[in-house]
Amino acid sequence: MKKLRWQILVVVVTLVLVGALLFSQQPIVQTILPQPTSGGVYTEALIGSMSRLNPLLDRNNSADRDVDRLLFSGLIKFDSRGIPRPDLASSWGTSQDGTIYNFSIRPNAVWHDGQAITTDDVIFTIDLIKSEISFYPQDVKALWDEVEIRRLDEKTMQFRLPEPFVPFLDYLTFGLLPQHILGAVPADQILNAEFNLNPVGSGPYQFDHLLVDNGQITGVVLTIFDGYYAQEPYIPQVVFRYYSSSSAALDAYQQGEVLGISQITNNVLDAALAEENLSLYTSRRPELSLVLFNLNNGEVPFLQEVAIREALLTGLNRQRMINDLLRGQAIPADGPILPGSWAFYEGTEHIDYDPTEATNMLKREGYIIPAEGGDVLTKDGQRLAFNLLHANDPMHTALAEYIQRDWAQLGVQVTLVPMPYEQLIYENLTARQYQAALVDLNLSYTPDPDPYPFWHQAEAVGGQNYSQWDNRVASEYLERARITADLNERARLYRNFQVIFEQELPALPLYFPTYTFAVDVQVDGVQAAPLYDTSDRLSNIADWYLVTRRALEPVATDVTE
Question: Residue 399 sits in which domain range?
Fold first, then answer.
């Protein structure tokens, strides 16, 4: 039987040798593990196409972000638990009141062309982030507009915030751009600058050349950067090739064109699992799917009742939804904070699917089938009926239909309203013109777990608290967590917030989707930690190395008394 090669998150297999010398000359079986060695070429299939190799312009193109991850560095980076670590910065310090951050750049940090990286490069990049040409969202630009930046010398700088804001470190992971190359380029011309096709960064790999076929870019070749300030990778060359779909990428793997596939989608999952030498790695994605309720909509006052919301969650078979529609590629969600984060509370109670109990909960609240009959529960003339908005793509439509069927069994009538996702967000949620909505919260680029934007009462008007949840105690926990530097204390505050969220259920958490990628067994050292961006799967590429065989044959050794 073929061994299981599908690794969920980080799975470390330790081989333990137990030898019992019952007789003289008892053979012991030794397993010789491959040791990391330098050499070889790693070729990976990326799903999509290249646009611009520039970290300010790659937010809407995952294929570009994958390449940029190896080309560019930021001041800091985050580990898999969301804890900040030094990158280009050698150290940093914070004032006691949390409003001043002092940063020092590594003295040996240089660009791929050998020029030293200085504070001027940082200031230059931030100015571009704030400009019209950057693809950064407006809230990021607004934050940098409020931060005073002081250049102390070539390698040190100071950021002054108008008020304490611990998640500020999230905003320092941007890839730096070289001022000595782009400084002379007018900001409005950077979008189409030659630099985007021949970039100079500071990451572990440097740009070598593009692969072009019939005038179309088909790939990009990167080579190891000898002047890299941190651990030098074992693999001297990385080649990315572009494919239109996971299916085309899998075909390329089967033809021997690539050793890795950036994403295994559900439609090729079975075929990928059937490949004997292809290892699949699955990690949690930085997204949360949930049902939002408009808690301030007088047309559906029953949605303001905690007991009703709890009954709806109890009557929803989330695990079957994951199994049937998502092919198991998701983790059931019990709260708004990503599992694996340092802020995630393990004690959150999971609400199991129990349609009988859900029906009884609704009856205890006084909802019954009216005397004249029908299928919809009613109380004081108010029917348990509401509209559910959802994106009109096939996946969200199937999910919405699933939810509709489950709740219909409880006596709850749900009318589905499909629409383009942009319309749902910008016209309905933003305007608070809805009753319920099936949505995905994108938590990418934010390793800090700060849930303030989505759940604080101050965000109920004009912000992203689309449910308009108004809980003063929960909001106070979120406020204090934003200004508390001590990690343990922040974790306690977020634990308290999660407990209140669980008690009130202002929205119904459904699942955290997962992300699956694949790498040939020739490549060792690969890990699959929780992702804050899909490019995070490459975060430990310096540890990857190529082997001729995954494991060597056992060797029998004679041992005498």
Answer: 287-513
